[in-house]
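[Meeting: bench + compute handoff]

Bench side (C.D.) handed over the final construct sequence. Compute side (W.E.) agreed to return the predicted structure before the next meeting so the bench team could plan truncations. Sequence as handed over:
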Amino acid sequence: MSAPGLIFDLDDTLYPERQFIRSGFRAVALRVEQSHGVPAAAALATLLGALRRGNRAHALQAMCAAHGLPSSLVPELVEVIRAHAPSLRLPPESRDTLVTARLRGWRLGVLTNGLPVVQMRKTAALGLSALVDEIVYAQDWGSGRGKPEPEPFEVVLERLGVHAGMSVFVGDDPWCDIFGARRARLRTLLVCRTAAQLNRARACEADAVVSRIDEVPDAAVRLVFREVSHAA
């Protein structure tokens, strides 16, 4: 029997993406202080306030308006976020999950959407190359749109040397992660950490749902080896 595969989404699965957003906002605040004389602390407070109000998509515009900066500056600030070296920390429970799964014989992978150059900086900051066997940047494959297209899933399976039927994909997005992985014939685990996510999960056809990342190793064993024993 070949080794089983356990493949993870990155953002909001292995670590909270807000870490990256806050890190990027700090880089933006420093840039506008250096280039436009806006105090970094004031700029950062405006950006984080927009984030808390659920206005992340327009946080840069709100910051420019609040501090008298031209809206034409926004594309440059987007590039500041994309190009900065992020300050990120892998949660201990995610690290423990990866260590535990590897000790149990799983081949480990990460498959992530997003601009590959940006995602590479995230995985480097999180130290993931030492904890998993393969990292695949989904937009490098297929049409370039990433998950849920099948090609990125096929690539990570091939690189890990595992079969889809003996593999589990773990993610937080019902469409990109769960639908995409199911279409590629992987087992699926949806991570739902909040009541709102759990409500959304009810319409999702994940094979199982977990509320904590450290539940993944046991849940993955149940999914893969229960199916194998039934098939036997």
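W.E. noted at the follow-up: The chain has a mean pLDDT of 93. C.D. will use this when planning the next construct.
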